[in-house]
Amino acid sequence: MGNRHLRRFIVSIIVTVLMLTMLPENTAYSAEKYITGIELLERIVDNISESGKKAGGYTLSTNNGTVKINGKKIKEKTIKKYTSKYKLSEKEAAYCIAAVKIKLIKASGIKKLKKKLNVERAVVLIYDADGLVNKRSIKDSDIETVLKERIYDSEKISSESAAKKIAGAYIKGFCVGKAYKDYSQLRVIGPSKKIGRKDALKMADMLFDSTGRYTLTDDFKVIRKDDLPRNADLYAYILDSFPNEIYETGFNGMTSGAFFESGEGLGADDLKTRMKRKNFTFVFPKEIGEFNSLEYPGPNFSYSSNVFLDTFRNDSVPEELAASSAEFYTYALNVDYRTIEKDKEWQSVMKKYLSDEELADYIKHCKENKTVIECDAVYTDSSLVYWYNGEYNCKVYAHMRVVSDLPLENGKTTGIDQETYGYLYPVKRGYEPGTLFTRSVLGNLYMGYKIGTWTDFYFNTSGSADMYGSLCCSNTSRGIMIDYSGLYPWLYKLPGR
What we know:
It is a single chain. The chain is of the alpha+beta class. It is 35% helix and 14% strand. It has helices spanning 3-22, 37-51, 76-86, 90-101, 110-113, 119-133, 140-149, 160-172, 197-206, 244-248, 271-274, 288-293, 317-332, 344-350, 356-368, 406-409, 415-421; strands at residues 54-55, 58-63, 66-69, 72-73, 178-179, 187-188, 215-216, 222-223, 282-283, 302-303, 306-307, 335-336, 372-379, 385-388, 391-404, 455-463, 482-487. Residues 14-31, 303-312, 421-448 and 465-497 have low confidence and may be disordered. The chain contains 17 helices and 17 strands. Helix 2 (37-51) runs parallel beside helix 9 (197-206), helix 3 (76-86) crosses helix 4 and helix 7 (140-149) packs across helix 8 (160-172). It folds into 3 domains: 3-31; 37-216, no CATH class; 317-487. Strands 9, 12, 13, 14, 15, 16 and 17 form a 7-stranded antiparallel β-sheet that branches.
């Protein structure tokens, strides 16, 4: 071979090696990243041995490939039978015999365990092992909720039995997959995909070390523990699928970074102490649960010329306000002037939140302004609810675009322009044109915006409540008045964070 050809050959070898090392982990060239069922089984049995717990009524102990059941070594004759029948090493045979004895697996399934595991088989194995060594009580209704409302690809699981076990493993915090997309509470498990060795062994170690398990909310949303927003301490928890941006947006009443130092915010005092101040106006999201459990300090507790009784709040408000906010925006941001007058479904939902007069005004301005708005995502959560100046507030995210709107296309974006040309949305009674207290959320009043451009918007809603803690408004049937008190695209630098 000539020098030139030799150099080309060497270069091709180097390039090939580099390409192989750069291939993603889910390719066949990264087979070392995957794990067989036998290997996972060995880790599970070792962990049961180290825990000292009984599994299936038996105590296991392992040491350098030697396995004992109830303190007795497995007979050599039995091990040889397994090595011959299933083509296993003596170590593999011993572990499989122990797993069969405690009823973690059936002998008939050993051949399948010699293959690389997919996610479904690995999670089912872990769930079955957990059932042998840990007490658990999972409601059928919770399993059903997770399969319907949390696992996006539950229909891809091979059987109903496996699906229930995967849902159980999800609830127990072993396996939660990945978020379907930002803000979505659906999770992609990928049951047929090969599972990485690291992930599988991590699950096996979670059997007896619960600190490694995923943490869920009461309604089975996944809580994020790392890469947190800089103001994470203001929230009860941070959802895994919610980006930091929504947490770092401002609060209603927050006009500068000094807000956190003013004494109206967290300040140096606890909530009970702050509630005794005459200028008390704010409760952060993480304090809402405590706030709802506390009585106001006295029957005539007042601020801002308002008087409230100590029975004003209840625990259902955050969930109701979050659900109502998501419903309203889903419809309010999907309008078409060409069909709005005949869209009975749209009108029936909007009547929950707007008076007949407001709804008629909404439709009138929509038609006059030739408004077309599209929105493909609206998300919020009860953990984003806080309290300001007598009202519960909720942060909301929406992904939307304005396809057509004459005043905005003609540059009419300020409060005065809106008063002249009509409003894209109805406004709160007693509003001041050009302030944050209009329900109009588009245009240069708040941020740069272009017709036809998909944009991330962060809204703030507030719900009025009566003295018994029920969300209400006299002219709505939903039992809630949503006040769209502004768009908060800015990120204030939070002192000390």
